[in-house]
Write the structure tokens for this entry.
Amino acid sequence: MTPTSTYRLQLQPDFPFATAAKAVPYVAALGVSHLHLSPVLEAVPGSTHGYDVVDHSRVRAELGGEEGLRRLADRAREYGLGIVLDIVPNHMATAPGYNRALWEVLREGPASPYARWFDINWEAGDGKLLLPVLPGPVGGELAELRVADGMLHHGEQRFPLAAGTQELPLPALLDAQHYRPAWWRLGRTELNYRRFFTISELIGLRVEDPEVFTATHAKILELVRDGVVDGLRIDHPDGLADPEGYLRRLNEATGGACWTVVEKILTGDEPLPASWPVAGTTGYDALHRIDGLFTDPVGADELAHRFRDFTGPAGDRGGYWEATVRRAMYKVVIDELGAETAALARIAERICAADVALRDHAPWALRTAIRELLVRVPVYRPYAVAGGPCRESDEAAVSEEAARQAKAAFAVPEEAAAVDVVRELALGRLGGGRDRTAFCARFAQTSSALRAKAVEDTAFYRHVPLLSANEVGGDPGRPAVSPERFHDYCARLARDWPATGTVLTTHDTKRSADVRARISVLSECPDRWDALLRQLAGVAAPDAQLAWQTWQTVFGFTPSEAPPDGARIEPALLKSVREAGLHTSWTEPDPVYEQAVRDFVAAGPAGRPREAVARLGRELAPHIRANTLGAALVHLTMPGVPDIYQRTEREYLALVDPDNRERFRTGPPDEKTVLTVAALRLRAERPHAFAESATYTPLMATGPAADHCTAFSRSGEVISAVTRLSLRLAASGGWSGTVLELPAGRWTDALSPDREFPGGPISLTELLSASPVALLARRRD
């Protein structure tokens, strides 16, 4: 059954199944149809997210085990709720003490029946799996390595020993293993297993192998067959060798009985592959369109200009978005994905060595061509399958124009021909056998890791004119979305992906929807933002970019009635400067700079200057309200299945994880709660208005302020109307003379049931007199 709406709960040891069951009556009362649970399979002990799976055959004991999950599902069914489950097919935790499959691989090497589970290149490691787990070079850690209980120990870590090696002297014992414990820094360049992005603690799974798929999905499929689980969210499909092949196998295994959405990040107007047997995405594409609707394009451009002036022209601190992305791409592909590009180069060299016509392409030229093409893939990845037909989207992802630009990195034109070889390999049109398949898949997998790390985790923290635009799936270089573009997008959803997921806040968003809604108001008043920065100039920041970013964060994070929480702001800012990598980083931290960040937070955001920020927030409160309620209503009534992240049914101000992964708890309802409940109940009471066959019809206002109203009808039964850019609207004289044509019939305001309107033209001054949004339902009598 397709959900009408879902409610995401972040399970963790201090919020297990039993506690989640107590929340069921509250969640059901909101009007959703399904609980959406974070991963439930056995994970590393203490994990607060569950994406570090160690055993696919068991439901996590720390959450209450399978019995606890089934009791939660029974409790949910009592209240009419189904269960949607988040599953992780791409990777497992590199924690051999808990991951039995990996433990066996370390103990037995390539001969282990579990060796086929993992993407390991044994040849690259001279027959050993590199484990970058030591805090320093192995020579300095020998004294910390010891053998006890038939295992190798280092601190709390433990590793298996190959048969017959336990009595060997330590150096000989290490040489006799099928793995090599190594300094963690070697992971960047020497790693010989595929990982999740650049996280060596998560090892890639080969679910393209039917036996691996069966072994890692048996428990999930059992839960589906038993009716415990009704829907699946697929985490990071772009990491898989063949996403479409995996999704087809999953769809066949579930009998097509599951509502399935994929965490696919679409770039710009990139479409979801139409051949994928899924309901759609998890909704980051919708998030970008909704946020953009409430962003002023003129003011956003002005903020970008002022950001460059404020931070100066040096490097990324004053750059343009496209240039910032390109620099970040080069940084990540060279510094952080060295092991991945080296693996691709080895495959390319083997293919060329086996073909006399390709034999003279130098290894360095192939490595350069791989790097230069990867940084020019404009989307997360191509989906070409070696030997299969190349689709138009694949040709666009690894285009002839990208190849032409990549050749500019070569001084000699004849050497630049390596680019054409690599392009053909990436598209699966060159080579043969396993190497051709391997290169095609690994190029795509590396491409997705590169874009995620370079854009989401680097450029988004360097280019910060308007922080609300720096969200997964967003476009900080073009943050605003016009009503016309928004309506076109919704029409495509209604036609092609009517049951897709939509979101505003997730466990991965860098700022919650309400924080972004507050910050977006600044795009309507860049002069006031500029004045605030001048007022705060006396608080010395380590650098201008951090000052700009910090005060925008504080503005978005400061509720009108309370000061900001410095204890929550400091970790988020430290994470941002480490991700940006301009002055400090996760791998090369600068303690002096990071202490300067802490001192700045104590003196500014957590000190008296915060009052100036709070004062501006109070002055802009009506417009913050319009953005917050407008985004929520659009999300809840546009085409697709809305997912409500825990606690976001009311005002929810949260920063990047782990700040946004606090355990669920209820709170007093507010105006946003009233809107959420009204919209969700309409979805439940009038499912035909939001079903897969439902229509989406834009309603166009007329008059001088027409652009400030976005309205649409769902199947002629429900109308949503929201105010956009309300500060600009107020400055231009309000709604005077602007009307909205309501379809025939009589309409009740679901937010104020005592208000009714006839069909025909209605003044927006009247329609939006009580609230910046209106939710109308056609009377049935």
